[in-house]
Amino acid sequence: MRSRRVSTALGSAAALALALTACGTADVGGDGGEGGGDGIVIGVKYDQPGIGLLEGDAPVGFDVDVATYIAGELGYSPDQIEWKEAASANREAFLQQGTVDMIVATYSITDERRQVVDFAGPYYVAQQDILTQAGDEEIGAPDDLADKVLCSASGSRSAHNIVEDMEIDAELREAGNYSECLQLLTDGTVDAVTTDNIILAGFAAQNPDDYRMVNNAFGEERLGVGLPEGSTERCEEVNAAITKMWDEGKTVEFLEAHFGETDFAYQESAPEFDTCE
After folding, report:
1. Which N-terminal residues, if any, form the signal peptide (predicted)?
2. What is the CA radius of gyration of the chain?
């Protein structure tokens, strides 16, 4: 039986074998409020296995299930949701320009981002980890990245956390998204990729013979629902939906559906919310 740490701090992920067994849309809440129109546009990732991955003409994954549940609580049925790919570099612009109504795309809550967008949640708290090629045993912790080439996905802060905040002298190589980072890692152009452990778990599980997850988690990544600036009322509505999702056991159900066949020690307790402002 897998053991999991039941706290807001995640344990490390172990050897993985992901099975994307869940359907693309989650159960929606039955007591949702009135929808704000004919539909809702939600930004999610299209390139992250287990989180948000385009299969056919619709995305599937944990974030997709979370977004579908929240939309249901806001009064929108699954067929009223329009999905929009939200790459890390596009998230703030999409919210500012009205391209999407909300973003559920492994979107870490930071003070810098709060200057231009609002956040509800967090709906999940992850930690940061490192991914290397399968045969690379030299890298076992952030300090081992000194003088190594580290992939930085455009719009993500993860690699900068290591270079700037932890002051580790790694060389950053920027890519458009994490799929491109994985290709650079496969080619040997970079030595490692770093981001949320829940994201790396999906990639490692999809290609267990190619990649090795270091399993030495550090820091904390509070994943929130991105909203346009000034969305205080909607923020409170989304927080109520997230609370209900945890209380009903739906969050753990979604995590189990996408990571249940792995040894990933996902969080099983609801995180504390920030105040909607």
Report:
1. 1-26
2. 18
